[in-house]
Design a protein that fits this description.
alpha/beta, TIM Barrel, 7-stranded parallel sheet, two-stranded antiparallel sheet, 9 strands
């Protein structure tokens, strides 16, 4: 929490995106082969998965086990997460009528999310470990809703953005409302930090990001800030957008591995940064991962306001012992804010 505010810290804090998930043997043993969305409807299971990496690694934050499509799934929009592919929408958004089908989930529908967060916080309270809540940023969510699934070209998305900007704005408004409802449920339950994932914003030009993506994200971030909860905004391949992302108003800007942290700090005007170890550098053993970790720490320097993380999520084949070694090095050798 102090690092989010750019204040001095006892040690550089560290957590990993997707730390609660497929790389952990205890996760695989607990989850089995069921649907991830069905698992998220089980608060006891969700809470236990959230806590597993905190116990194993001693990370400084627990991220709620969830997915960016959860609010739309719970609201009955017709979305699933297909193993090996990702979110898939039964009836993608193409028309105004499709947009009108999209609604914010109710408090009752969000009850499994709230209960899972409450259960996790009972154990986290014993170590004062904060719970990190999250949601998908409007552009990234819209990319799934419009394309019908993951995309490399974003052709349908960009066709709608440029061909019918009024419809895009209406869709964005609906996504903003659903996102705020989802985040409020997490904050009401006790989430202390919120990360907004704009995972696919790197597909946009600077002009497209400024016109179509930044405003909706800014409205969500402003709502969370008004609740006095720190915010992190993260995207992949967004090095050329970092200054614009900083303008969306998050307290912290997440950085992938393509931009060194010292350069990233300059691009975001000196505000706190999060990142940015390449997840692939954790696949070749602890020694090489530690070497890469030290490179990131050196780039972060001594200035306060650094949260160590990967530049994207933990890869499924990552050895948990490698991540444990990374945590130890960050805690022992990180200098930012000391």
């Amino acid at each position: 929490m102090r690092a989010c505010r750019g204040e001095p810290v006892d040690h550089v804090p560290v957590w990993f995106m997707r730390q609660a998930g497929r790389s952990l043997p205890e996760y695989r043993a607990l989850r089995g082969t069921g649907s991830i969305l069905e698992a998220i409807e089980d608060p006891v299971l969700t809470s236990e998965i959230t806590l597993q990496p905190v116990r194993r690694y001693g990370v400084d934050g627990a991220v709620l086990f969830s997915d960016i499509v959860v609010p739309y799934y719970l609201a009955g929009f017709g979305i699933d997460v297909v193993p090996g592919r990702g979110p898939v929408v039964a009836e993608p958004v193409r028309t105004r009528a499709d947009v009108e089908r999209l609604r914010a989930p109710t408090a009752e529908e969000l009850a499994p999310v709230s209960e899972a967060a409450t259960l996790a916080l009972r154990e986290l309270a014993t170590t004062a470990t904060p719970l990190i809540g999250f949601a998908g940023a409007p552009f990234t969510v819209a990319s799934y809703l419009i394309e019908g699934g993951p995309s490399r070209e974003f052709g349908q998305v960009k066709s709608l953005m440029h061909g019918d900007p009024d419809l895009w704005d209406r869709l964005s408004e609906r996504i903003v409302a659903a996102t705020i409802a989802f985040l409020d449920a997490q904050i009401d339950a006790g989430a202390a930090v919120i990360q907004l994932f704009d995972s696919w914003a790197g597909a946009l030009s600077r002009g497209e990001y400024a016109r179509f993506a930044r405003g909706p994200s800014a409205r969500i971030l402003a709502h969370v800030r008004a609740r006095q909860v720190p915010t992190i905004l993260f995207g992949v391949g967004t090095g050329e957008l970092l200054d614009l992302m900083a303008g969306a108003g998050s307290d912290v800007v997440g950085v992938d591995w393509r931009v060194d942290l010292d350069d990233a700090r300059r691009r975001v005007g000196g505000r706190p940064v999060q990142g940015n170890l390449d997840p692939a550098r954790c696949l070749a053993g602890a020694d090489l991962a530690i070497e890469a970790t030290r490179e990131v720490l050196a780039s972060a320097g001594d200035e306060a306001g650094h949260i160590f993380n990967l530049g994207h999520g933990v890869l499924p084949s990552t050895d948990p012992e490698v991540l444990a070694a990374v945590v130890r090095v960050v805690h022992e050798e990180g200098r930012a804010g000391r």
